[in-house]
């Protein structure tokens, strides 16, 4: 789960104000990555503009090494990508098999 400097807002969460999605970053963990965020399908993170994706992943409690791809607004980016308010970040896990 998020460390202390990560603010997560959930739609309809009692006692919290819902933020405009343009003032936050929407994070979509795919498949098994959801277990690190209590099964949530979408998270809205505040105050992450100007920070890198890798830092956000680690603050969510997701081991960065198991995130195989990061899509920002549908575009493949590196984990050192600087985040901006209003972006949608999709985290895709590594897949294995054989």
Characterization of this structure:
The protein has 98 residues and is mainly β. The chain has a single domain, classed as Beta-grasp domain (Ubiquitin-like (UB roll), Roll), CATH 3.10.20. Helix content is 7%, strand content 29%. It contains one helix and six strands, in the order E-E-E-H-E-E-E. It has a six-stranded mixed sheet with strand order 1-3-2-6-4-5, with no helix packed on it. The longest helix has 7 residues, at 53-59. It is globular and about 40 Å long.
CATH architecture: Roll
How does the overall form come out from the CA principal axes?
globular
Number of helices: 1
Low-confidence stretches: 9-21
- Major sheet description: 6 strands, mixed
Tally the beta strands: 6
Distance between the termini: 31 Å
CATH domain class: Alpha Beta
CATH topology: Ubiquitin-like (UB roll)
How many structural domains can be distinguished in the coordinates?
A: 1
The average pLDDT score comes to: 84
Helix amount, in percent? under 10%
């Amino acid at each position: 789960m998020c460390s202390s400097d990560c603010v997560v807002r959930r739609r309809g969460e009692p006692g919290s104000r819902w933020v405009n999605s343009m003032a936050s970053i929407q994070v979509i963990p795919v498949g098994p990555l959801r277990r690190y965020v209590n099964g949530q399908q979408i998270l809205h993170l505040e105050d992450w503009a100007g920070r890198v994706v890798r830092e956000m992943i680690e603050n969510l409690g997701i081991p960065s090494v198991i995130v195989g791809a990061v899509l920002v607004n549908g575009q493949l980016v590196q984990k050192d990508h600087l985040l901006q308010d209003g972006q949608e970040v999709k985290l895709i896990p590594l897949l294995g098999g054989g």
